[in-house]
Amino acid sequence: MSAWETVIGLEIHAQLATRSKIFSGSATAYGAPPNAQANLVDLGYPGVLPVLNAEAVRMAVKLGLAINARIARSSVFARKNYFYPDLPKGYQISQYELPIVAEGAVDIVLDDGALKRIGITRAHLEEDAGKSLHEGLPGVTGIDLNRAGTPLVEIVSEPHLRSAKEAVAYMKKVHTLVRYLEICDGNMQEGSFRCDANVSVRRAGAQKLGTRAEIKNLNSFRFVERAINYEVSRQIDILESGGQVVQETRLYDPDKGETRPMRSKEEANDYRYFPDPDLLPLVLSDAFIEEVRTTLPELPDQKAARFASGYGLSPYDAGVLTASRELAAYYEEVVRELEGEPKLAANWVMGELAAALNRENLEVGSGRLPAARLAGLLERIADQTISGKIAKEVFEAMWSGGRSADEVIDAQGLRQITDSSAIERVIDEVMGKNPAQLADYRAGKDKLFGFFVGQVMKATGGKANPAQLNELLKKKLGG
Amino acid sequence: MSELHKRTLTELAAGLRARKFSSVEVVRAFLGRIESRQGTLNAFVSVTSGQALAEAAGADRALASGGGGALTGVPIAHKDLFCTRGVRTSCGSRMLDNFVSPYDATVVARLKAAGAISLGKTNMDEFAMGSSNENSYYGPVRNPWNVQLVPGGSSGGSAAAVAARLVPGATGTDTGGSIRQPAALCGITGIKPTYGRVSRFGMVAFASSLDQGGVLTVSAADAALMLREMAGFDPNDSTSVEAPVPDYVAALDAPLAGLKVGLLKEFFDKGLEAGNERRIREALQVFEKLGAQLREVSLPNLPLSVPTYYVVAPAEASSNLARFDGVRYGYRCKEPRDLLDLYQRSRGEGFGAEVKRRIMTGTYVLSAGYYDAYYLRAQKVRQLITDDFRRAFAEVDVLMGPMTPTAAFAIGAKTDDPIAMYLNDIYTIGANLAGVPAMSVPCGFVAGLPVGLQIVGPHFGEARLLNVAHRYQLETDWHTRVPQGYA
Questions:
Q1: pTM for the full model?
Q2: Residue B83 is nearest to which of A46, A52, A143, comparing CB atoms?
Q3: What is the dihedral of CA A279, B156, B437, B257, to 10 degrees?
Q4: Which residues contact residue B280 at a Cβ distance below 8 angstroms, ignoring those fewer than 6 apart?
Q5: In chain A, where are the structural domains located?
Q6: How far apart (Å, rounded) are the C-alpha atoms in residues B242 and B245?
Q7: Which residue of A lies nearest to B89 if distances are taken between CA atoms?
Q8: Superfamily of domain B4-259+407-436
Q9: ipTM score of the complex?
Q10: Which residue from A85, A274, A278 is facing B315, i.e. has the nearest CB?
Q11: Helix/strand/coil (H, E, C) string of chain B?
């Protein structure tokens, strides 16, 4: 057992998938030319006022309900004051003392299959800041305020995570959840889903938390894992050599694979939070909350449990297949089309299909291989028209050619030979051509059985039904 | 024709509608007065003659075809912190000296929609911070009753302009008395409506939880007419209240018999000058004659208004004014070395002394370790003051008392002593902290200088307030007095 225990808490920032910004009517779409989506409110013009986007509230409530949290009947927007060029008003509207969501939790699956509950301290609504632009602007800094005012929900976990792996599992779980709820597109490259990690270490068994470092702005699962692992060993090295960890904000450099302190500010920031007088307390009625509850979809954990019990899948498989709503829907469509064989469907969706999608960097919803088509292929395995091995070839042909399984099977003559007399004929032929091997086999060289299977498969172009072949071959070789 | 400026806003609106004179004539008459008095009074920051005359011609066409709204063709002016599209909106600050607003404030848009024509933007204390109009980048405004004296502030330009009949009515804002105090010192009528009654959208913020737009006019009837067009819910302002706007004009004439008037005990204190108190007592006698019942009412927490206000208002201001950073609009220092230098010099050079003082005060009271002792405490006291008003209005219909402790003071008399200046707001601030409507009504003179009577009402009691003031003005002529040389 290691002498050190790692303690991690994550602050996940999820951009809410509203059409307009949290306090203005500007669009939130990604990728517009700089400042094309910044109106006078976003630009912080004199005299403008924020008006809360009801859809953002609805989405935050959805999240709160999905993590079994307490939904505040009254929450308060506060101003977080600091100067920065990408912060047009000189303050960020956020929630401080009274967030809209508090005291929730999600479960993650550990390596040994056990569940671990990760507490969520709070989730609050706030506005995103803009961006500073440096590329292609020698000597000056540009400001793009398209992102300014994009609604965010910041999800703050308890320090319940004990390793980088757990942190990633937790982040993936939340990622799955927000996409199920359709409140965030989860696009990490575009920054729609990112996190800050608070990392500290302490001697195993110690009660008191160690001094933490906050690693800012991690926007991929891989970076989260690497940054935390780097940070943990950095802190352990410091402590083991008698030093002290400094509480600071650090940035992860993915090229060098290390964390570095952010340009140090001369003194600690005092954000001077106070309730925003431009916005009234956000008051939610029970009726509103219950109405939002009716819009909740089947959640990942519920769906996984249903897959496990209804389709006889292992908890692991059920977890993989419910990682996204699209994947789960695809799987269920395959099962429906196939009528039975949920295990076969699971193996193919998680195996060949996932590998093919991965290879070409496609989403399951890309439509490249509709579920009905995959079901058509699996049906041919189930009814023994083709073997599993041939099916992989058919799959590749379907994947690249856009044809149905039957079209591929017929065009390439891949139909499995299940006619015993036909298989026997080939066996006889093979035995006739290989008298020496036959004699050796009969003299006790059992290993040569595989040789005869191979020869028959070769002669039938792999189409002989493997089970039948085995049985017939055993009988014939035995004499 | 040369007498057009003697007519009240109500008379002008009626005369225009009856086609007794044209809007172009009216606008020309007032523009002419502005031009000849601006050098003396400095009441305006910008005068938009060309635009006003063009709009007047349009108003005349609308009136000729039987169209137009309640204020069609009537000239007004806007305090220079209401955003006006295409027109500089300076807030009396070097910071926004170059700022031309790309949009109209809701108040500006509503008055425009009612047909009013803006002649320009009036001078003010920088970002509405001040009680004397001496804190303007454009220089002090002078009181038309005596040009050596201040007009009050921060809506000093609007008050002086209306008092000098350079315009029949003007908008103002009142965060801690900025409509009522200058109205009192200039001998005109001013009303600060209930917080939330008039949209703050496009009204550059000083202290968001206290700021309220209102009007400065000659009479309560004029105020009723103008306010009726300005007030109402605005989806762009989350703190504006979704309640119907009564017809303030129609409510003006209700009799006052049985009106229960509470005298604000705490305001008749040793700070109130004897002459001013006499004028107030005389006004109260008029109300008694009209059938009102007077009784003394105590609001025990009211004396805490000034310290409470000078925590809450600067706190909000320190945050509200953070957007003036030299990055996107407004003043930017020359050749900044780096970001910090850009911030420090743009703000250091762009803001005046009083604004900086309040930003620093506000930053301090919000700081970690001080927040509870100052800001939270002040909010608690604010609640106590609000409760005081609520209790009082359970017993009386309106409260009355002095508007200011003294008449107008000399320019420069208090500039070196911010505390003395702040204490000038002692009678005004309570209504802002409680969010209740209040107005100032001329009630006589002390040594040739006007004195204002304050009338405070319960939340959304504007109609009653205006009615009470109007009945008083039917009995008295203080509001019709014009400073010498401006008749």
A1: 0.90
A2: A46
A3: -170
A4: B268, B400, B401, B402, B443, B451, B453
A5: 4-292, 300-411, 420-477
A6: 9
A7: A46
A8: Amidase signature (AS) domain (3.90.1300.10)
A9: 0.96
A10: A274
A11: CCCHHHCCHHHHHHHHHCCCCCHHHHHHHHHHHHHHHHHHHCCEEEECHHHHHHHHHHHHHHHHCCCCCCCCCCEEEEECCECECCEECCCCCHHHCCCECCCCCHHHHHHHHCCCEEEEEECCCHHHCCCCCCCCCCCCCCECCECCECCCCCCHHHHHHHHCCCCCEEEEECCCCCCHHHHHHHCCEEEECCCCCCCCCCECCCCCCCCCEEEEECCHHHHHHHHHHHCCCCCCCCCCCCCCCCCCCCCCCCCCCCCEEEEEHHHCCCCCCHHHHHHHHHHHHHHHHCCCEEEEECCCCHHHHHHHHHHHHHHHHHHHHHHCCCCCCCCCCCCCCCHHHHHHHHHHHHCCHHHHHHHHHHHHHHCCCCCHHHHHHHHHHHHHHHHHHHHHHCCCCEEEEECCCCCCCECCCCCCCHHHHHHCCCCCHHHHHHCCCEEEEEEEEECCEEEEEEEECCCCCHHHHHHHHHHHHHHCCHHHCCCCCCC
Chain B (328-357) residues lying within 8 Å, Cβ to Cβ, of chain A? 328-330, 339, 343
Per residue in B290-311, pLDDT tens?
999 999 999 999 999 999 999 9
Contact between B239 and A280 using a beta-carbon 8 Å cutoff:
yes
Q: What is the pLDDT of residues B415-428, one digit of tens each?
A: 888 887 887 788 99
Asked if B202 is an interface residue toward chain A (Cβ–Cβ < 8 A), one would say: yes
Mutate to test the interface with A, among B127, B238, B242 (most CBs of A within 10 A): B238
Q: Assess A453–B contact: CB distance below 8 Å, yes or no.
A: no
Residues 245-304 of A with CB under 8 A from B: 270, 272-274, 277-280
Beta-carbon separation of A91 and B363 below 8 A: no
The domain ranges of chain B are: 4-259+407-436, 303-378
The predicted-structure confidence for B148-200, as pLDDT tens digits, reads as follows 999 999 999 999 999 999 999 999 999 999 999 999 999 999 999 999 999 99
B375 touches chain A (CB under 8 A): yes
CA distance B101 to chain A (A): 8
Q: How many CB pairs under 8 A join A and B?
A: 101
pLDDT in tens, A366-387: 888 999 999 999 988 888 788 8
Interchain pair B101, A47: CB under 8 A: yes
**Domain A420-477 class in CATH:** mainly alpha
**Catalytic residue flag (residue B178):** yes
What distance in Å separates residue A156's CA from the closest CA in chain B? 22
| CB contacts, 8 Å: B239 with chain A | 49, 277-280
The active-site residue, picked from B46, B118, B136, B154, is: B154
pLDDT at A412 over 70: yes
Burial class (CB in 10 A: 0-12, 13-18, 19+), B270: exposed
The pLDDT value given to residue A264? 55
Q: In whole angstroms, give the CA distance from residue A62 to residue A71.
A: 10
Residues B339, A278: C-beta atoms closer than 8 Å: no
Closest chain A residue to B104 measured between Cα atoms?
A47
Phi, psi of A457 (to 5 degrees): -60, -40
Residues whose CB falls within 8 Å of the CB of residue A464, separated by 6 or more in sequence, listed in order: A416, A417, A423, A426, A456, A457
Spans of chain B, pLDDT less than 70: 1-2
Residue B373 near chain A (CB below 8 Å): no
Chain B contact present for A413, CB below 8 A: no
